Every structure is written in C-alpha cells, then in structure tokens.
C-alpha cells in the first residue's frame, strides 16, 4: 500500500479513536466532578473542556492502569469510563458542530497530517523534518505497547527500563493498541496531537472565563481573537533573513537561531507532550483557583478540586518534567501568598493536592530515578541564549550581555503576545487583573516560567527546560493579549493597533516559514539537512523492510541498522523490534554514556568498514544483536565478496537486506 495513503488513513483512524479514549472519558470526568463549571457550560464549550480534562488527567490514570494490568486493560478501562458520557457527548456534538467548527477541525487535522506523515511517490519516500523528534515519539509508543510501563529503552537495548517522562505516550499507546494494524506509533502520536490542539482551546476558554476579564465582551469576538493569535509565532523570521545574508543559505527551522520558543501549531506537532504538560499544570491550578474564589465552598466541591488538581499535577510531572518545574514554582509562590494572606483553607487545599500528586506520580518518578544512569546534574545555571549575540563576545561578557538583553530576548520570542501583554498592563489595573485567583495565577506562572527559563538550562542533550517551561508564560501572554484586544475593539469588530498588527504579520510569517521548511528542508543547502534528507529511495525500501520484519521476525529479536550517521530514524519510525544502539544520541532515555559510546565503537565498524563475516558475527553477538539491516549506503554492500552477499538474507530487496546474525558466513574483508 502507498505510504502516504496508509499514513493518512492511520491518522484519521487514530483521531477517531481519540473520541472514546480521550474526549469521552474526559467528558465523563467533567460530568462526575463538575469541575470548572462543567455542567453549566454550553455544548461546544463542554466538548472542548472534555478534551482538556482528557489530555490533562488521563495520563496519570492510564499510567497507573498500564502498570497494574497492561495496555489492553487500560484501554478497556478508559473506554468503560466514557460509557456514561456517550449520550451527552453525542448530544453536544449535534448541538455545537456547525460547518465553521467542522471546517476548522478538518483544517487542523490537515496541518497535523502535513507535518507528520510521509510522502510516498512510489519510488521514493519524502519525510518531514519533524522526524527528528517523531522517531522518539513513535519508538516510545511502540515500547509501551509491547512491554508496558516503565517502557524499555527504545534507543539502546539494556536490561534497565527507560528513564523518561512517558505520560503522553500512555495515550498514544492506547490509541496504537486499539487501532491494530491500521495505526502505528507515528499515526497514534498524530491523532493525540490533534486532540491536544483542541484541549489547548479548551484551556484558553476556561482561563478567560475564570479571570472574568472578558465577561462583557461578545463571545464571538473573544473566539476570533483567540483563533487569530494562536497561529502567530515569534519574530524569528527577522533572524532568518539576517542569517540568510551572512550564510547564504536558508535555515528550515527558524526557532533554531535563538533559544527555542515555538509557536503553538509547531509546538503541537513537534512536542505535544510538553503542551499537554502545560495544560495539565494549568488545569490543576485552575481547579483550585475556582474554589479559592468562593466564600464558602461546599465540601464536595473542595474534594473534587483537590482530586482533580492532584491528578492534573501528577499528569503534568509525567507529561513534561520541565513544565512541571515551572508549575511547581508558580504553585509554591501561590502557597506563600495564601499563607501571607492567612487564607489557610485555600493553602491547605493546595498543599494536600501537591502531596497527593506526589503519591500518584511516585511510581513514575521512582522509575525515572532508577533507570537514568547518564550521571551529572540534569540542570545547571546558564543565562538564556540570545541568537544575535552568538560569537559576538566571549564569557563572561557574553552572559552579562545576555542577562541585560533578556527582556528583548523574550520580546523577540513571544512576538505579538509580548506586545499584547504590555498593552494589557497599560489598560487593566492590577486590582482588576488579580481580582480573581486565576488572574493572579497568570502573573505567577508567567513570572516563574520566564525566570526559570532565563537563568537555568537542562544539561541532557538540548535545553528542553528553557524551551518548554516558557509554555506557561505563552499561555498567560496569549490570555492577556486577547483581553487587551477585546478592550480596544468596538462592538463585534476586532481591532489591532498598528504595532500589534505588524507583529502579528511577522508572527504569521515565522510560522508559515517553519511549516514550509518542514517539507522544503532538502533545498536549504545546509549540510545537516542534506544528510537528514538522505536517500529517499533507500528510505522507502527501509520502511518496507521494517514492515516485513514486524510480521515475519520475532518481536524480541534485536535489529540493528547502521548507527554511523549522527541521527538514524527508520528503526524507530517503522520498526517493531528493539534496536541495539540507535545513534550518537542513544543516551536520550537514560542509558550510560560510556556504554553507548562503547557499543557504537563495536557496532559502527560493521557498517562502516569491510570486516570479515566472523568478525561481524562476533561484534553483533557481543552487543546482543540478532539481525542486521544493511542498505546500499553501507560500505560492505559494494563488495561482492563481503558477508552481505556471502550470507543468506531473510529479506532481500535491491536496496536493503536483513541478515540473521546466526546465518552470517565468512566473506573476505
């Protein structure tokens, strides 16, 4: 079957499976708890809130269910949870799903598919640049489906399990399992990313309502403002143009020219697990803020708020440890303020929710600590990188300049929402902005995330802390900008002041450029992206080879593709069997760096050099490898006397051969 057609069908099926596995259970939880005024919401708002509750709460529940009974038990239990909500969900869909809503949903689904599926021409396979992260998402989903939780390390075969935040992948694993052969890890990820986008809309709606700052604005005007702002990115398009004049080439991912702050559409297709972490963190805070605003909340409402907040905070920890760090910082500041105000009951609710969330997240947290053996501190002090300063001066002057220009750095990264936030604070008095707890939490979350992202960085591969903790501030500045626009607008007409209009256009340009770059990256003339494009004909052959291996070879057989390139993708995107060592970044899930380097040193010569069959077999067996996946790009392929041709292949294609290690024959070096 054509790969593009297969992927498109898989994304559609995975998206539909999100209804019984994400939307309906989330809707049921809303009906049971009545949280965020769920029962009194309009039908469309209830659906979006149901998506928010599904994305924000189910990862914690599903994690516990998978550990207790496996993926099938968790999928059936999650589906059973939603049975009581099937009729109200159907009624809400009928009442709220008009042509405009359906068109927007289909447009968003098209964006997700565009960013994540392969383009198969029949002779070659063209993949999006998002495979850089998609390989991890697909491989971890597969690992959970096959082996449960904690997941095995999908990048490095070892007895220990992976030490990684796996909350989002419990959802993708359920969708993958329920979809059978129609869905794989990649398409399951795409389907859940679609629902995360709808959940983001649900969060923005509930935040705007909880602050009370748009109570007098027309709902359609507010919705229009939200939809216009969500696609707008940073001002990085200006850095791209400047880089083009100096380098003579185009960088396909504009955010790489600065410390990364992705626009919402890009975040949702690159890293929806971090977006989901922000949704869960905000959901927990909002649940507690709702009862904190009441003079005398009843005990049932208090219990529901504490329970939802505990689940949400536990889910946040499992979805994104970096976003959870920012959420914890904001919650800690809020707790101090409540104590200073002698609001002991509200402070107690927050403290109890935090303790319960720690208990719920304990199995996950213990597994991460037990299975990460990469050593060293995961976080270190560092002033946030500002792209225009790179190479300008040396340390310590560079850090001093970065600190001085940190506000400008954030203004560049947040774009129109940075200007909108400043406008908000000019238009709205602090007393009104903080009139409700949700309004005060916007400020606390923005301050905590910008502070942490400004002076700390994660030391595991990339600076995910700096890039992802800012999501909390992105939510806050988006809400502030929506409020500011509604205050300036007249009747039903949305009005953008001149500066905001210009920044909005630049933000659109950044987002559009990034999405074009997802597909046009082979033409960028950057060596790294040329290597990423690889050989489309071989990529297509590898996809077919891994599909064959998934149905004809034992699932526990370790397959090894060449780890010589800096990044390798096919094993994780299409394979079902484990791999010996992925590539130079195989320590991502906590494998010891020394062990990764040692195995790379043992295995890489098999594909890079011309060894005899006996030596290849010795090296492969020492690494626990059961079969080798060899392509026309590997050095031994070109020698007719090599072990590749002297040994019997279990799978043979003009561009790819799979050979069992036990079948290897001598062959001359």
The rounded distance between the terminal residues' Cα atoms is 38 Å
In this structure, how is the largest beta sheet organized?
4 strands, mixed
Q: What is the count of DSSP helices, taking H or I runs of 4+ residues?
A: 29
Q: Residue share in helices?
A: 55-70%
The percent range for strand residues is under 5%
Rg, Å, rounded:
25 Å
How many runs of DSSP E, i.e. beta strands?
Answer: 8
Write down the overall geometry. Answer: globular
Low-confidence stretches: none
Task: Report the mean per-residue pLDDT as an integer.
Answer: 93
Strand order of the largest sheet: 5-6-8-7
Structural class: mainly alpha
Question: Any overview of this molecule?
Answer:
The mean pLDDT is 93. The chain has helices spanning 3-33, 43-69, 71-81, 86-96, 99-116, 131-147, 167-179, 185-211, 219-229, 236-247, 264-270, 272-292, 299-319, 321-340, 344-371, 397-404, 406-414, 416-427, 430-433, 437-455, 464-468, 471-488, 498-520, 527-533, 536-552, 570-574, 593-608, 613-622, 643-646; strands at 119-120, 125-126, 379-381, 456-458, 559-560, 627-631, 651-652, 656-660. β1 and β2 (125-126) form a beta hairpin. By secondary structure, the chain is mainly α. A four-stranded mixed β-sheet has the order 5-6-8-7, with helices on one face. α11 crosses α12. It starts with a helix and ends in a 9-residue tail after the last strand. The protein contains 29 helices and eight strands.
């Amino acid at each position: 079957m054509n790969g593009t057609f297969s992927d498109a069908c898989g994304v559609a099926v995975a998206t539909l499976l999100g209804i019984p596995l994400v939307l309906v259970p989330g809707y049921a939880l809303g009906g049971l708890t009545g949280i965020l005024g769920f029962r009194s919401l309009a039908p469309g708002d209830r659906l979006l809130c149901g998506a928010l509750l599904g994305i924000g709460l189910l990862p914690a529940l599903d994690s516990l269910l998978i550990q207790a009974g496996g993926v099938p038990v968790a999928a059936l239990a999650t589906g059973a949870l939603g049975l009581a909500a099937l009729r109200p969900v159907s009624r809400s869909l009928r009442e709220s799903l008009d042509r405009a809503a359906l068109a927007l949903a289909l447009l968003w689904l098209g964006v997700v598919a565009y960013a994540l599926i392969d383009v198969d021409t029949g002779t070659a396979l063209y993949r999006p640049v998002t495979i850089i992260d998609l390989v991890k998402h697909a491989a971890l989903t597969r690992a959970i489906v096959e082996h449960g939780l904690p997941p095995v390390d999908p990048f490095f075969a070892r007895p220990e399990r992976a030490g990684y935040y796996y909350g989002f992948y419990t959802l993708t694993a359920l969708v993958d399992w329920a979809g059978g052969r129609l869905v794989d890890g990649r398409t399951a990820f795409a389907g859940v990313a679609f629902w995360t986008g709808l959940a983001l809309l649900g969060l923005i709606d509930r935040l705007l309502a909880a602050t009370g700052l748009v109570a007098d604005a027309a709902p359609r005007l507010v919705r229009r403002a939200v939809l216009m702002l969500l696609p707008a990115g940073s001002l990085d398009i200006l850095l791209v143009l400047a880089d083009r004049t100096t380098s003579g080439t185009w960088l396909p991912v504009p955010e790489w020219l600065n410390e990364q702050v992705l626009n919402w559409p890009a975040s949702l297709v690159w890293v929806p697990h971090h977006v989901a972490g922000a949704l869960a963190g905000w959901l927990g805070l909002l649940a507690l803020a709702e009862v904190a605003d009441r003079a005398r909340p009843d005990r049932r409402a208090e219990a529901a708020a504490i329970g939802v907040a505990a689940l949400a905070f536990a889910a946040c920890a499992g979805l994104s440890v970096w976003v959870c760090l920012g959420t914890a910082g904001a919650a800690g500041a809020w707790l101090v303020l409540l104590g200073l105000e002698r609001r002991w009951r509200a402070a107690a609710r927050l403290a109890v929710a935090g303790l319960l969330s720690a208990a719920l997240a304990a199995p996950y947290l213990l597994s991460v600590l037990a299975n990460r053996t990469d050593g060293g501190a995961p976080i270190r002090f560092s002033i946030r990188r500002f792209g225009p300063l790179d190479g300008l001066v040396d340390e310590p002057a560079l850090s001093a300049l970065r600190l001085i220009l940190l506000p400008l750095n954030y203004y560049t990264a947040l774009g129109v929402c940075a200007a909108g936030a400043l406008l908000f604070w000019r238009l709205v008095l602090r007393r009104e902005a903080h009139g409700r707890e949700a309004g005060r939490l916007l400020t606390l979350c923005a301050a905590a995330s910008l502070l942490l992202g400004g002076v700390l960085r994660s030391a595991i591969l990339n600076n995910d802390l700096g890039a992802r903790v800012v999501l909390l501030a992105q939510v806050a500045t988006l809400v502030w900008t929506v409020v500011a626009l509604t205050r300036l607008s007249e009747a039903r007409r949305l009005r953008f002041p001149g500066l905001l209009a210009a920044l909005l256009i630049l933000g659109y340009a950044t987002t559009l450029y990034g999405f074009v770059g997802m597909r046009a990256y082979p033409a960028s003339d950057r060596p790294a992206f040329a290597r990423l494009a690889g050989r489309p004909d071989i990529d297509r052959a590898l996809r077919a080879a891994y599909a064959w291996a998934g149905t004809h070879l034992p699932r526990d057989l370790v397959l090894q593709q060449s780890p010589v390139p800096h990044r390798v993708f096919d094993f994780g995107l299409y394979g079902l069997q484990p791999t010996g060592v992925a590539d130079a970044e195989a320590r991502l899930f906590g494998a010891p760096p020394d062990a990764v380097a040692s195995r790379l040193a043992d295995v890489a010569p098999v594909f890079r050099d011309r060894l005899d069959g006996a030596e290849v077999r010795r090296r492969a067996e020492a690494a626990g490898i059961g079969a080798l996946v060899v392509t026309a790009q590997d050095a031994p392929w070109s020698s007719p006397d090599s072990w590749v041709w002297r040994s019997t292949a279990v799978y043979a294609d003009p561009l790819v051969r799979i050979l069992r290690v036990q079948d290897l024959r001598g062959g001359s070096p």
